[in-house]
Structure formats: structure tokens, C-alpha cells
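Data deposition worksheet. Section B asks for the primary sequence of the deposited chain exactly as it was used as input, without tags or linkers unless they were present during the calculation. Section C holds the resulting structure in C-alpha cell form. Section D is free text for depositor observations; keep each observation to a single sentence. Incomplete worksheets are returned to the depositor.
Section A, Depositor: J.P.
Section B:
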Amino acid sequence: MPIKETIKSPSKAQDYQRRIEETKAILAKEPKVSFFIPLGIGEKIGAYETVQLNGYRLMIKKGVVVEIPISIQVILAEYLNITSAAGQDKLADREEVKDGISIGTALS
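Section C:
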């Protein structure tokens, strides 16, 4: 049994590497779009956002406009939209009205 496992392991690694290379080639051929990822609170210039697709990893610089494949833009846009929407219902300055008074007005 150990011999079979040894034989299978390289083919899995080769398959994984092949998928990475295929993904890289496909993304290289895709149209590119300009995209901006803002720095998060406390992040310094030079911070990166990491995106991994089928094992292929891209590090995208934050705080500057970059050109990225459209598939990566779709993934990042969805992720950033979800991240920015998270917790909006908990903000003190939200526009929720309770008992006829805006939460923001009640706190000011």
C-alpha cells in the first residue's frame, strides 16, 4: 500500500500544478479592468489583498488603481461588497427609525 500512495501523490501534485498553470494562462488572456481596493483601517501603503483561484494566487496592491483580469474583478467586487455591507445594521449613524425617531438623531 505505501508504494501505491507514493505513486499517486506525484500525480496529484502534477494535476494541481497543471490546474494552476491553466488558470494563469486563462487569466492572462482575459480582458483587464481597472480596480481599486481601499486600504483598511490601520493598513499602511503597500498592503495587499490576496486572491486565490484554482490554486493560482494573486497579490493585488491596495490603495492604488491596478489592472486585473475581469474574473478576478468579479470575485473581489463581490467580496468587498459583502465586507462593506457587514455590520451596517449595527452602526450608530444608520438611518433606522425607531418610535418615530432616527437612531442617529437620538444619539446626537
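Section D:
The first helix runs from residue 2 to 29.
The chain has one domain: 2-86.
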